[in-house]
Write a structure and sequence with these properties.
Layout: E1 6-11, H1 12-26, E2 31-35, H2 37-42, H3 45-55, E3 59-62, H4 65-74, E4 80-85, H5 91-96, E5 100-103, H6 106-119, E6 123-128, H7 140-151, E7 156-162, H8 172-188, E8 196-198, H9 202-207, E9 215-216, H10 231-237, E10 245-257, E11 262-263, E12 269-270, E13 275-280, E14 297-300, E15 303-308, E16 316-319, E17 331-338, E18 341-343, H11 345-351, H12 356-362, E19 369-372
Parallel strand pairs: 1-19, 2-3, 2-9, 3-4, 4-5, 5-6, 6-7, 7-8
Antiparallel strand pairs: 1-10, 10-13, 10-17, 11-12, 13-16, 14-15, 14-17, 15-16, 17-18
Helix pairs in contact: 1-3, 3-4, 11-12
The structure holds pyridoxal-5'-phosphate.
Pyridoxal-5'-phosphate binds near residues 203 and 227.
Length: about 375
Amino acid sequence: MRQYRCWAEIDLDALRENLAWIRHRVGPNVKIMTVVKADAYGHGLKQIAALLMQSGTDVFGVANLAEAQAIRSVGRGWPILMLGACLPFEAETAVREDVMATVSTYDEARRFSEAASRLGRPADIHIKVDTGMGRLGATPHEVLDLWKRLEGLPGLRIRGFYTHFASAEDDPSFTRAQKLRFRRLLAKAPHQSLDYLHANNSAALLFEQDTHLNTVRPGLLVYGILPEGNRRIRSELQHQVRPALSWKCRVSLVKEITRGTALSYGRSFVAPRPMRVATLTAGYGDGYLRAGSNRARVLIGGEYCRVLGRITMDQTIIDVSRLPQVQSGDEAVLIGRQGSRQITVNQLAGWCRTIPWEILTAITARVPRIYTGSQAS
Ligand SMILES: Cc1ncc(COP(=O)(O)O)c(C=O)c1O
């Protein structure tokens, strides 16, 4: 990796093994819908889709049609569900490209039905019910009636029925209430012939084994990251999946500063003593969030080094006072292992007061993704 200033290394073997572990956990009869929204959580959609196709994913979950088209360009034949709502002008493309659509209302379904008639091919949809997320989905009160009406629309094929948990990682009682609402509907809905019945994201896949239904919908877990939540289960599971992504940059300059020297924009850090500091080749222009200013840590020479002052667009200053040998060109780890130490996505998220999903998807296009592992080309 000598030529890069700031790069992400993605271990395809880790992804393959994570998917195998998910398969082992849910059993052979449950379909796995791998969620590859937002450039496969920042890992690079096309490469990850290709790997998941070879490794046994059953179906893909995407946010929009551009992502669905990127998957189709890698391999044909895999079912794809668009998890976001389809805009009116997108309905025809979704049907033409054979992307299953999420439907919350009759109007949406009517547009798919009309597109199906125009194109002379079926429109596949999943009905979504809002059991507590408050985002997409019909209300539990109206969804069965909606379902009946949709059955009468020409060209429409109801392939799935699903819901989404709002706090599966940290609120088991609210999740239980959502499960109950969904189960009550399932008891009344004509779902027996549906290919896809689903609710569980990564956290629910770990903590709510009784709602695997016939399909699960993991994102974070595929990339080897455990959602926060149930500590006991987390500690049991932490060696079962492993993070696929490491994020690295380099020391560009090392200098000694005197007591009282202020660092970076806004002068939010003032040296309390003489210090040795290093400038790194990563900043918020690479997705290293400014919220980590004065809080985040990086690894250099196998040691934790604190971020000093504000993270800037392309550069970040760190404390290397305890590392006399550090020099320009040395590797710094923003996420990943170095020696015996590790910085996890969850840790960086904690320093930035955000969530692991945002850390991963914030890594910008400027950062080359380098694929490693036995299947990397
Ligand atoms: C509807 C839906 N299902 C599943 C997922 C996957 O969630 P996770 O990454 O927590 O597994 C997401 C992610 O945002 C989602 O929006």
